[in-house]
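Please describe our next protein:
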Amino acid sequence: MGDPHRVGVVGLGVISRAYLDTLANHPAVRIAALADLDASRSAAVAATIPGAEAMSVERLLASPDVQTVLNLTIPAAHADISLGAVDAGKNVYVEKPLAVTFPDGRTVIDRAATTGVRVGCAPDTVLGTGTQTARAAIDGGLIGRPMSASAVMVTAGHERWHPHPDFYYAPGGGPLLDMGPYYVSALIHLLGPVRAVVGAASRLRPERVIGSGPRTGQRIPVEVDTHVTGVLEHANGALSTITTSFDGVATTAAPIEVRGETGTLAVPDPNYFDGEVRVLALGDTDWRALPPQAGYAEASRGIGLIDMVTADGHRPARAGGDVALHVLETMTALLRSAAEGQRIELTTVVRRPVPVPLTPAEEWRAHYSGHLSTRHQVAGSTDK
């Protein structure tokens, strides 16, 4: 058995707890280092993880004890931290989105290819039994040829629960760049890559009011569009409509629906790993629930990084940087289309990720390939 893959975590904000709960006790990885702009925070977290050392961001990026950097910083810092890791010869797995702008994302991927390291990126929720069961149903012909899909995310805004929601309404934020990666990634897993987009967007409120935490009642400016909708033209000819909004209370729409020639699939929320997949076949009157058929069972955030580590270069990472870059271009092209009022053709091309076979929780939680090597190291603000 080889040594666990050594991971350094940069950014110890809200989302970090979910990652650490998954990774800290997994045999394939070891949390070797932790860094945050708040040194007291990194020291406090390090004290809860045996063998982890709190250090500065600069020292972590340079540390020979770190093979892969887990980048959990705010979106505006994603590219800088990822490039710092890549330039230090380390792999990087970054919280979504890959970067705030498509050129920055392109730079990260190109620089990694030149350096010979890997880049991975959230969301990895699409590797759970929800999206993967839906994909297995589509690939198995359950609804015939897929013709169209819809993806809908409507919420009143993250300022209602997040104590420091400023970055959600600053450049790099907004409902599309924040929540869109879940939905666009799922659509790519289900239907394949996107070739062109048409978008529209609005921003009807100039400020938001923080609803929780020590800053309750404070007003923050809105600098981004808060309702974005559009059409994705997939390479296979299917059309997807997408709506992401911080301007509504709720919706009765399914998070994702895929409609085929002989049936329709209702796909669970891609912000979660599991959920019920339902099908209505042509001629039927009642929806039927499908049992889990594929995906990592009972998965949690961080499974994408584990998937990369245990792949050990023998197959593409399922939450790879190539998919993340395509997702980023899709989203930024939608925003550009909304601003310019024209159809935008994408420049990136990506293959659908390798499907995930149904993998019981006890298997993926215990799995360790045992033959990790420097040659096949795997990868794919400062407070999210």
Q: What stands out?
A: The chain has two domains: 5-124+299-320+355-366, 126-290. Residues 128 and 296 are 5 Å apart (CA to CA). The first strand starts at residue 5 and ends at 10. The radius of gyration is 20 Å.
